[in-house]
Amino acid sequence: MLLGVNVDHVATVREARKETEPDPVRAAVLALRGGADGITVHLREDRRHIQDRDLTEMREKVRVVELNLEMAATDEMIKIALKVRPDMVTLVPEKRAELTTEGGLDLKKSGKKIKKAIDAIQRKGMPVSLFINPSITDVEISRKLGAKMVEIHTGLYANAKGIRHKAELKRVKEAVKRAIDIGLLANAGHGLNYINVKKIAAIKDIRGLYIGHSIVARSVYDGMERAVKEMKKLIGE
Question: Annotated catalytic sites, by residue?
């Protein structure tokens, strides 16, 4: 099972001050050294974290493993994808006011626009994945639209507790199984962390997990002590 590490929130910290650090490209290189099988970035319409230059530099640095571009199905983003040529594209819903992606694509409402994006991108040899809710219906629509794979939204599973937690896990499993049965590759992601990831990772048919926020958060803790020691050393010198 592959691990794609999303480094968006490294750029979130940088953009809070409009500085040059921390650098998401450098973070991506470190993630690869740690064993990541791929890197994911979400180039948003409002450019709130990842910038165009980040994507360009990421394409230059991430060559041996998968570079996954998350994006909305807009004409602007399609042009960027065709120019940068990531290894795969994941189409996601995007709202200006949201803090993070709140759910899967509305395939019934936006099917025509999504198909246009799928056709344009896959025509150039880049597989497209659709970020969808854990719904068998959405899996089947994804297949009809021509996507090569889906990414099952695990946010509801991650936030649920008790009986609801088990029910959401079952929904994810059923969606993955249906995807495999009809010839789609199945990924999963959103809200996965060091506590809840194992039950999702135990679903053997999942191709890859896409995780960002919890890994970036853990890196802040695990790297803070060393960062302070190095600064103290420089001050002492």
Answer: 42, 70, 190
In tens digits, the chain (237 residues) has pLDDT values of: 999 999 999 999 999 999 999 999 999 999 999 999 999 999 999 999 999 999 999 999 988 899 999 999 999 999 999 999 999 999 999 876 666 667 899 999 999 999 999 999 999 999 999 999 999 999 999 999 999 999 999 999 999 999 999 999 999 999 999 999 999 999 999 999 999 999 999 999 999 999 999 999 999 998 877 778 888 888 888
CATH class, 2-236 region: alpha beta
Percent helix / strand / coil, the chain, rounded to 5: 50, 15, 35
- Tracing tokens 């940088």 back to the chain, one arrives at 14
Quote the tokens at residue 177: 């199984």
Query: What are the Cα distances from residue 8, in Å, to 36, 148, 215?
Result: 15, 24, 11
Burial class (CB in 10 A: 0-12, 13-18, 19+), 110: middle
User: In the chain, where are the structural domains located?
Assistant: 2-236
The secondary structure of residue 176, as a DSSP letter, is: H
Contact 128, 118 (CB under 8 A): yes
Residue with tokens 């994810």: 172
Distance between the two ends of the chain, CA-based, in angstroms?
46
Cβ distance 121 to 99 under 8 Å? no
